[in-house]
Amino acid sequence: MVLRKRFSIRDQTVTLQDYYDRLTDKTILATTAMYGPWLPDGSFDWESYDNLVREVMKFGSVPATNVDTTWAIYNDWELTKQMIWRTAEIALDMQDSIEPDRPLLVAGLNTNPLDITADGIAPALRKQIEEIDRGLKQRHFSRIRYMPVPDRRLLTAERQKKIEVYRSIGRVVGDYTDFGLVFFELDIGIAGFGSNFTPEEIAEILFQTPQIQEYKSAIISQKLDRRYPYDCSDDLVRIKIVESVAPERIQFSTGNDWFIGLARLGKNIKNFGYLLGASQMSPRLFQRWRQAVQFNRIEAIALEHDLQAAAKDFWTPGNVGIYRHYLAIFLAMTGLISHPLPHPKCDERYRVKPVDYFIPLRHAVRLGLIEPLEIPSIAKKIIPNVNNWSDHEIQQRIQWMG
Fold first, then answer.
1. What is the distance between the terminal CA atoms of the chain, rounded to a whole angstrom?
2. How many domains does the chain have?
3. 285 and 318: one domain?
4. Residue 179: which domain range?
């Protein structure tokens, strides 16, 4: 196989001009990572989840379930299947809101807990998809795209083994859906977690696996040799790879909450998508932002910066669990789910402390999702230990936070 270019991050100089050269005003195809809400008794909150799925689809996003914000690392297999099937049922009810050439659902699949080798990844995924597919056929649902999360066995696998595994995954997925799979490449700066694909390996995987319809780059790793430790230069390198290898076939999306503006860099790619946990904060605002980009309205910049500010406060590289709980608190404060609770299996170190509940409240107010007069009642309902605060003390706390 001969590629048009070879890539090396070490040789790659990314400049501001690279950013501006890729700016686009075409439609951003949104896929929103779903949140998985929970009830105080430890059971899954299906009523809140259904509400979230409907909200996401109402504002033009494809729901992605059993992904990070759906607490995929903790969910058992039965719950995973039920979430996928339930999302499919709602999606069928609302399918007119999504273009017919797009999937109605993206479903994450996780092989990391299994006792297998790298050669066992594709067969394990086949077993999972077979079970899911039986339920989808009963519901007459076919518009699904699968997203296998990065398997830890590929962290230490040889180059050719990584490529062989993804070619095998592609053949498996191709047997069950015409909407293909998402190649999810993750590096969020946690040692031993995520992916370590080189740009050359990424290019070969994309080139040799035609079933890949979407490449999701979630590169938020620390750059030790730079003054600003987290930036979007790695993601720009990956956009260049898609432009070189398969710009007509592959939809580029990103999970980099720190740089929402990456979703505007699709000038040389036919379908430029977006899959991001931050878009779950407000599907309505996210749609407004996408439309502002499409119609070249200046408010896109303000909305982009405001959403990024919340994402940066909620998410710390190395502690993605905290992000999930922050999102639960934010969604409960804005009325989209009933309880601000993390997954029952979530470790204490990944739970937001009571004093920090004011952070999502401040962002909800700043984004216009909560009226100023509602602040005291919402704070007393959701934030621990503030029942005895006066309305003035609560308002003053928000004001002091900026």
1. 55
2. 2
3. no
4. 9-298
